[in-house]
Design a protein that fits this description.
This is N-acetyltransferase domain-containing protein. This protein is globular. The strands form 2 sheets. It has a 5-stranded mixed β-sheet with strand order 3-4-5-6-7. The protein is built from 3 helices and 7 strands; from the N terminus they run βββαβββαβα. By secondary structure, it is an alpha+beta fold.
Length: 135
Amino acid sequence: MSQAGGETLSPILFVRELHFEQILRWNHARKEVLTADILPQTGYILPGKAAGFLYRTDSSVAWIENLVAAPELSREERSVAIDAIVKAVSDEARRLGFKLLLGYTVLDAVVKRAERLGFNHVEGNFQLVALQLQS
């Protein structure tokens, strides 16, 4: 839970049938393409504010990805909402027994947020690669 101007923010589980269109709009505003099949089963949302997802693996490592916030919110409102989502996803990963939660970004602001929330910054010249397996 996070506080926003005295309001307690408690993310709820993402339900594709209820929340996908909202996330689609938010991603569209960022000129990012998103399809429902890209999202994992485990995600959290603050309706009207922000969402994020936990990508589980069959190892002790999980990924936090597809963090997105409503573009019409103020910078402060988005920040508080994303913090609440990151905490919810992190707590769920911990509850499920994962030992390491990874995320990637090209944005310094995201690195700063992650560090503030307890993540370690791993230095390096990383590149993301993708292989389309099916159309």
